[in-house]
Amino acid sequence: MSGYKLTQKNYRHGRISTAHGILSTPFFMPDATRAYIKGNTSADVKRVKTEAMVVNTFHLYLQPGRELIKKAGGIHSFMNWHKPLLSDSGGFQVFSLIHRAQGLGKIDDEKVSFKSPINGERHELTPEKSIQIQFDLGVDMMVCLDDCPPNDWPKEKLEVAVKRSLDWAARCKIEYLKQLKKRKIIEAKRPLLFAVVQGGDFEDLRFISAQKLIAIGFDGYGFGARPVDKDGNFLADTLFKTASFLPEKSLRFALGVGTPEDIYRCYLMGWDMFDCVIPTREGRHGKLFYFDKKFKGFKKPVEKIQAISKYPKFYHSLNISNAAFAQDFSAINPDSELLELRQYSKAFLHHLFKLKEPLGQKLASLNNLEFYNRLMRELRKI
Hints:
Layout: E1 3-6, E2 14-18, E3 21-25, E4 27-30, H1 42-47, E5 53-56, H2 57-62, H3 66-71, H4 75-79, E6 85-88, H5 91-100, E7 105-107, E8 112-115, E9 122-125, H6 127-137, E10 141-143, H7 155-182, E11 192-197, H8 203-216, E12 220-223, H9 236-245, E13 251-254, H10 260-269, E14 273-276, H11 278-284, E15 287-291, E16 304-307, E17 315-319, H12 339-343, H13 346-354, H14 358-380
Helix pairs in contact: 6-7, 7-8, 8-9, 11-14, 13-14
């Protein structure tokens, strides 16, 4: 059993101002990777009180392309979402593509070169180009391009990735300042810039990465690479230590986190921004999240060593495809603010999934997004 000092000083509440609205922390951003949440309109996503979403620079650069999005008036107009948006740099996707298959691309200190998974065309992405694309998208928050290797790489290879990510972050910051001046963007409309802390599961590398990024200066800092090891184990100690390395007044972005319990634990560690495909992807596969009937809100943590593996039981999930729901005529979610989730039954939803009807995936996704958004509101009450 591993543990860490969990105190009321670790977590915090805050408010940040963006060009498309004010966000209260903590907040969760569903992944609208290609400018949409599968099976749902922007109005649907707004109805369940979603406050911000994530789009992906890599995917939008390849399709439909930055020029088309510029012609549309920016990504907000293109996808009809007029609340805050964060753009991931696409580094994770590019490097996953390269690490997964030989011959699809290569990385050097200047840039990353890769073949498009759509049509095989060759592309190059530099830190400067990544920032330029994100400005063209017109997002409210953007992330520096980083070298994002697997966590289980040997330390000497991770050291190279950390150094490259630091060099690229410095180049991103220089290009960011150039673009602000070139585009005559005033302070009130300035997109927030995030850098990414790398270092795998090595505390010393994470510390070095964090300290050097802080010296450059960013609005917020993210946890780089996946938050789990190669066996799927949550990197709780590493996440906690990394949060402790970051400035108190800076935003802390736990990229890719995650499950409800991992969000809860990361929030208490000091992370206050989250994004993940889990609520919508799991919903499309028939998994629905619910707060337990006995849940009455989170209690303040006690100031003592607390086991990482322990967290209060506050939710449960079910798989609507199970035969047990074929004749369950109770509401999909009687506590939902959405009329359709209160009026349609679990039996009907089971029927939709059996027939592979997209309406079923939509209803399940909305249920889960509503759950995640309520989770954020409950965390703000701690």
